[in-house]
Fold this sequence. Notes:
Layout lengths: L42 E6 L12 E9 L5 E3 L4 E4 L3 E3 L4 E4 L7 E7 L2 E16 L2 E16 L2 E10 L3 E11 L2 E14 L4
Amino acid sequence: xxxxxxxxxxxxxxxxxxxxxxxxxxxxxxxxxxxxxxxxxxxxxxxxxxxxxxxxxxxxxxxxxxxxxxxxxxxxxxxxxxxxxxxxxxxxxxxxxxxxxxxxxxxxxxxxxxxxxxxxxxxxxxxxxxxxxxxxxxxxxxxxxxxxxxxxxxxxxxxxxxxxxxxxxxxxxxxxxxxxxxxxxxxxxxxxxxx
Length: 195
């Protein structure tokens, strides 16, 4: 699974480790766009906490900035990602990244190529996440699965904070049931304007 602005913005990586929230959990208030403010000039800085990195490379930061908006309504970032928020979904040109209603268990899929379909689900709502940028309440965690073979899956989890955007990005490989963390990035700083 190739990460997008959500990973391109979330581009810190070039994709079930956590149990889902109980079905009785309430829906998160707001539309998908409320969890990823898109405006030219908005920026997010992530620190790489990838477990497999050598100690001298862990902690490197990367900033992603929205630099323009095209006539189709897509916002372009400094990592060549593109995002647009419609009333029902936040998406890039191939994937639907966060879709309404925002409630645990909500699922959808995106066909990214002839041989690849990503399956998404809202794994949790109302989470509290602490990063170097602060503590964020009311977060929504989205989990995406991509089957790479009969016994291998790639899992990508992005946690979005309301009015902030992605605050934590984690990818895992799952081979014959064994989960191996691959990438972990957390928000260090951000600057967002209202939509």
